[in-house]
Amino acid sequence: MTQTITVIRGDGIGPEIMDATLHVLDAMQVGLAYEEADAGLVALEKHGELLPQATLDSISRNRIALKSPLTTPVGEGFSSINVELRKRFDLYANVRPARSYPNTRARFPGNVDLITVRENTEGAYIGEGQSITEDGETATLVQKITRKGSERIVRYAFDLAVRTGRKKVTVVHKANILKTTSGLFLKVAREVAAQYPQIECTEMIVDNTCMQLVMRPEQFDVIVTTNLFGDIISDLCAGLVGGLGLAPGANIGKDAAIFEAVHGTAPDIAGQGKANPCALMLGAAQMLDHIGQPEQATRLRGAIVATLEAQDNLTPDLGGSGNTMAFAKAIASRI
User: What range(s) does the Isopropylmalate dehydrogenase-like domain occupy (predicted)?
Assistant: First the structure.
């Protein structure tokens, strides 16, 4: 049976890495059909708006989207198109795996295999209640954490651990100082953790977490935390395994899910065939897991690993002399 997904090619290097990713998905014959939609600068040029209603309708209809990086112009439109999409579709769970891959700039080769689960819809990162005094001397921001938001993200993390055979969830917080907001998150996390006795639960203050990730990342399995902390930690984890070129992300809600490469549009190399498509391909693997094709997701990840091991047509950031599509074809040949 064919499943239609929304495809957003994005800006900068976005179309190149999307072409490469769809080439590999087509080679896998996983029964996907593509409905293309625009967002970002491309949408602004074609439709006069950054996030057209037709794109929102496509995501609502198909419930699954694969998205390349987008540019949000400075000084106009949304604070972030990605944040706007998360709000519109209540994509409360941001899921960022970090894994060591061969022949990369990983700081801990073979030693990192963890997932950061980040609350995606509330907290300081959302930027609610921002204001600045008339004299420009004082800026304020409201940080709001809810029991509902905390409960569902922590439960998602524990369910993910159970589903994927992981053994431990680390709840990351700053409740020693932020006693109301982070304190509520930690309290709810403890309540949820008690319902999963088969999963080890540990608690860690966010600053210590960052230090421990750099010193002994192998101690982590699943991390669950609030929005701003998760944004910082997930990028730190990407640095441990060789950079954002190997960092996929999933934004998951009850009625829709968007899978993406979390890096930027890299306009300085756009159109040159230098872009590494692995992050978006790994996002596509997350998508395959989500739509009930875990065996195909494993095939895709395995082909990426085999190509990295063989150093076959790797892109320049990985130390090779291949281009984006040649790298994709090398991966497809190993499917």
Answer: 4-331
